[in-house]
Each structure stands twice: as structure tokens, then as C-alpha cells.
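Data availability (excerpt). The following record was deposited with the supplementary files.
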Amino acid sequence: MRRLSLSSRLALLFAACTAVVSLFAGVLFNRASEVHFIELDQQQLDGKLIGLRRALQDVQPTQREARLADELSRQADLSLRITGADGQRWYDSSTQIPKDLPSQNGLSTISTDGTDYRVLNAPLYPEKSDSPQLSLLLDITHHQHFLQRMQHLIWLTVGLSALATALLGAWAARSGLRPLRRMSAVARGISAQSLNARLPEAQMPPELAEMANSFNAMLGRLDDSFQRLSAFSADIAHELRTPLSNLLTHTQVTLTRPRPIEDYREALHSNLEELQWMAQLVNDMLYLAKADHGLLMPKREPLELADETDVLLEFFAPLAEDAGVTLSREGNAQIEGDRNMLRRALSNLLDNALRFTPAAGSVSLRIAELPSAVRVSVENTGDGISAELLPRLFDRFYRADPARQEGSSEHAGLGLAITQSIVRAHGGQIRCESEAGWTRFVIELPRS
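Predicted structure:
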């Protein structure tokens, strides 16, 4: 079965609510009218009963019928039956009176031969136990016809109200849901080439403004992710193009003519270097892919950061000495983390710092304990990084140096991206701060 649209559901809901309310109001009005007629009939019959008792008081038997006829002639829709204490019928004012009437005292309603009566039974002489019984009958057929017409009108009103409300509700729902249709139209028009489309939040009602804002934010994230993915694919091709071209050219040149065995050996060694760099590049990309899918699962072992960083500083000491750069470390802290992964992250930062520190400069590694985290910062002297470049430092294949070297066998621009993935896998954050004359990378890791 085809599912109903939201507009149809709202229209049917409006119609159902209107029908229920109209029916409830109609039933209440009908019931109130019926009670009102009963009260009027009760008052009329009670007044007539008092008049009949007075008319029959101290009246000779031969004059009773004349007195009763005179009393009843004033109201054509009123009939009277008098029954003796023994149940014998003494008097009927009309031949139309039903044969069987209610025997209990009080007001009751009967219907016979298409005529409705309100019947009031009462003793003629209340003070006597053997008093004759009076049965006053009031023809209320016109009352019942009015109530029947009222019921028909109620049902007609309910039906027409439900239909009118359904039509108006459908129109109102369709008008009210126009922003949703606009959102649907924007969503249908979204493709890889049109991720910059946005919903006009200012034109949305308050109930949908937040949804429109979330929708636009989602489109923004998708656009950013798609742009990064496109750039990543282009960067991969960019990085692999040069080493592959070198391999092909070198191999073709080597095979153009017979050569001594040493030339072939030298060519293979040269190709091996390019292949090793490509293999490392592929491994780094696989590492980042695992990080993107949450597959990096760091071990949790107690670490003394001072000992771990001293090992790295000892490794980089010869390079720093050759470059005329001073290495130093301050502070200590204990955390739980993966030794190899954290060493790799800090090694990437130290390697970057040494490459961009001029001669006679310094690289400082500082460790500090915070109330809920451990901060590790790697700071180096040298030219600062402009503020507009800072947000992109951790992008893959990004190099702040505009003189980018294609297919460099040393640096492919993945080091900072890998460092960020390692830090996030440990539940931490990394950021870069830079001013004229210095640059600092700050890592904050949660305490164990």
C-alpha cells in the first residue's frame, strides 16, 4: 500500500479532530435540549396536576366530567386518565389514550402508534391511601421531531465540518510544509559538482531553522571532505608521478644497449631507492587510512616521557650537531600509551623542527603536567609560519614551503598528518602556534 504523505496525514488528523469535537458538542447540545424539554414538560404537567386537583375538590360526582372537560379544553395536546384504587378505569378524556400506561408514580415517556407522550402519574388525593390515580399525558411528538431534526443537523454538521477541515487542513499543511519541499529540492540537486548549495535559513520558520542550519553544516562538511578527497587523489598522483617517471626513464636508458654488470647493479640500487620511498609512501597512506576508520588501537603501557624523549634526542643529536642546532629537554611526566606510536609522532615533530631551524638556532622539547592532561611541546627558532597556513599544516601532502619538490624521496608531506592521527588515537589534541622567530607544536594527552 502506498504510504500517505505528511500533508494528507495532517489533513486527515485535522478532519478527525474537527469531527470528534463537532460530534461531542452536538451530542452535548442535543442532550441539553432534551433535558430542557423534559423540565418544561415537568413544569407544565405539575401545574396542570395542581389545577385538576383543585377543580375536582368538593365537586359532586355528576359534575366531575363537565369540570374535567372544561379544564382539559384549554390545552389540546393534554389528555387525562383516572383510575380507581382497584385498577378500574374511571375516566378517559380521549379515545387516543394508549391502553397500557406506566403504573409507577412520577414522570415517564412512552411512544405508541407513532405518537410520543410524556406521562405523569400521581394520586388525586395524596393524603388518602386509597386515592384514585391521575395519569396526565402530554403529546410531545413535535418535541421529538425537533430533536430528530437536531440529530440529523448534527451529523450533517459533523460531516461538512470534517470535509471542510480536511480541505483547509490539506491547504494549510501544504503551505506550511513548503520549506520542507524546498529542502527536498535542494537535496535532489546536490551532486559532487554542487555541494556548495545552501538552504536560505532566514526564510525558514523557527521550527525548521535549526534543521536547515544542520543541513547546511552537513553540506559544508561534505563539501570540505570531497575537496580534501579530490586534493588527496591529485596529491597521490603528484607524488608518485616523478618516482615512476624516474624508474621508467632509468630502466629504459639502462636497457638501450648492453652494459657491464656494475652498471646494472648501480641501476638496480638507484631503482631500489625510489621503490623504497614509494613503499614508505604507500605504508604511510595505509596508516592514515587505518586512522580514518578508527583502526589504530594504541597499546596502553606506562611511559616516562623524559626517558622516551631522551632516546629521540640522542638519535637526532648527530644531525643537530652537523646543522649547528642546539637540542634541549625540560620537564617530565608519566602517561599510559603506545611507545612506538608516540616515538614516531615526536620523531616527526623533531625532524620537522631540525629541517626548518637555521644554524645556531635551537630546538626545545618541554614536558609539563596539567590538572587533567600532559602537555608536550616542540619549539624551534626560525622563520614563523603565517596564520593563514596554520590550519592546513596537518593536511596530507601539504608543505608550507611554496617551492615544493615533486616526488621528494625524503619528505612527502605526510609526517604531520600521521602525528595528528597518533595523537587523536590516544585521545589527545595537537596544534601549532607560530610567531615571527619561532614555531611551536603542542600536544596535549589525557592523563592515565
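Summary of structural features: The first strand starts at residue 78 and ends at 83.
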